[in-house]
Amino acid sequence: MADEVKLFGVWASPYSRRVEVALKLKGVKYEFIEEDLSNKSDLLLKYNPVHKKIPVLLHNGKPIVESLVILEYIDETWKGNPILPHDPYQKAVARFWAKFLDEKCFPALRKAFSSKEDEQEKAIEEASELLKILENELNGKKFFGGDKIGLVDIVANFIGFWLGVIQEAKGEELLLTHKKFPILCKWIDEYVNCSVIKENLPCQR
Amino acid sequence: MANEVVLLDALASMFGMRARVALAEKGIEYEYREEDLMNKGELLLKMNPVHKKIPVLIHNGKPVCESLIIVQYIDEVWKDKAPLLPSDPYQRAQARFWADYVDKKVYDAGRRIWTTKGGEELEAAKKDFIESLKVLEGVLGNEPYFGGKTFGFVDIAFVTFSTWFLAYETCGNFSIEVECPKLIEWVKRCMEKESVSKSLPDPHKICDFVATWRKKHGVGVGRLSAYMSTVTLDRFECVCFWGLLSF
């Protein structure tokens, strides 16, 4: 039976994009359905009644939600080009960093860019501490996944792409500078030049 | 090669309890080390430098952090006995989703119940907490466990909160059994398993801890005073509990 794969997402959402990267990496054909988050479709509410959020992956009519859960599902269902290591310990390490990115880094980064002036300095300092931790984890490796991109690289797409865009839009290097984060900046260069990522970058509107 | 397994933990932590239950389910021998969370040990800081939190599973010298990641690691390494996650990818995704739901919804609302002074904040916390429990009760349905016929990942993720139910009920003046009777039946069923009953502390101990904390922070002890001095707390346990608030 042919696989029917649909992805409910939003073109500008890093969470949605990371699922697309994983599907493309595995060579899975899918239909992308753009959601209007100010007017959520009946289908979205049907397939994700608990959180009512994108992304939602629909595989042969069965929904999977929460981007990290979706990424593991994709890796377990389509075995080519694995995004998680085979070794249980390395897998646990990858899951740890993916969780760190989602639960600590991204909220701190969002806060750094959206804080009012008097709070911004502190927010930037907190975000910098977290980026430093990521730099230390990368040290010596081309990607978080080693020679090839893996789960953590896919999840770190907010840093890989969106951070640079936000900084450019704001017209100043608030946070991510080559001087402060040379290793992370090098990773970003490798990341955006990686072909599967290149095909999945939204244009910098 | 001999397996050396150490668990850095704190008695009252529902997250630490998850690791204990998983290890017990698999029949793994390990060394339990109670951490003084007010004065964190060098080993904890070395093994979890990012978050400095328990639980940490140390397997042959290598640390695994974050309770649900630890449970999955245990399941993958000791895979020949008592599988905790289903083998089907879709069922596994459902299990991961609901365990994540427990972390995001139940923990937060529960914590608000026992730390707020009262009034509107408490009522809002209770509402969120009961709502999240009702959703989980719906997920359980008529099956004996969240894992279906067998005890599994979501059961482990959620049952550890049951030791805290008495504390939540007392602080919030409500009955979980009245709101979600099927969940309480499920808790009792889980407690029949030695892996669960031996891993979870007495709920009265948790009440005692909560009462002590509330008294110290001027939040008001009220009904909880009934649970004080029914259990002897040594200073070490008190200190461990206060340190738990960092998680």
Automatic annotation (TrEMBL), chain A:
A Pfam family: GST_C
GST N-terminal domain segment(s): 3-82
Domain of life (superkingdom): Eukaryota
Single Gene Ontology MF annotation: glutathione transferase activity
Enzyme class, UniProt record, top EC level: transferase
Segments forming domain GST C-terminal: 87-205
An annotated GO BP: glutathione metabolic process
This protein's UniProt keywords: Transferase
EC number per UniProt: 2.5.1.18
GO cellular component, one term: cytoplasm
InterPro entries (UniProt xref): Glutathione-S-Trfase_C-like (IPR010987), Glutathione-S-Trfase_C_sf (IPR036282), Glutathione_S-Trfase (IPR040079), Glutathione_S-Trfase_N (IPR004045), GST_C (IPR004046), GST_C_Tau (IPR045074), Omega/Tau-like (IPR045073), Thioredoxin-like_sf (IPR036249)
Reactions it catalyzes: RX + glutathione = an S-substituted glutathione + a halide anion + H(+)
Family: Belongs to the GST superfamily.
Protein name per the record: glutathione transferase
Organism: Nyssa sinensis
Source lineage: Eukaryota, Viridiplantae, Streptophyta, Embryophyta, Tracheophyta
From TrEMBL, chain B:
One GO term (biological process): glutathione metabolic process
EC code: 2.5.1.18
Alphabetical UniProt keywords: Transferase
All residue ranges annotated as the GST C-terminal domain in the record: 88-209
Reactions accelerated catalytically: RX + glutathione = an S-substituted glutathione + a halide anion + H(+)
GST N-terminal domain span: 3-82
Domain of life (superkingdom): Eukaryota
CC per GO annotation: cytoplasm
InterPro entries (alphabetical): Glutathione-S-Trfase_C-like, Glutathione-S-Trfase_C_sf, Glutathione_S-Trfase, Glutathione_S-Trfase_N, GST_C, GST_C_Tau, Omega/Tau-like, Thioredoxin-like_sf
MF-aspect GO terms: glutathione transferase activity
Residues annotated as transmembrane: none
Record-stated family: Belongs to the GST superfamily.
Annotated protein name in UniProt: glutathione transferase
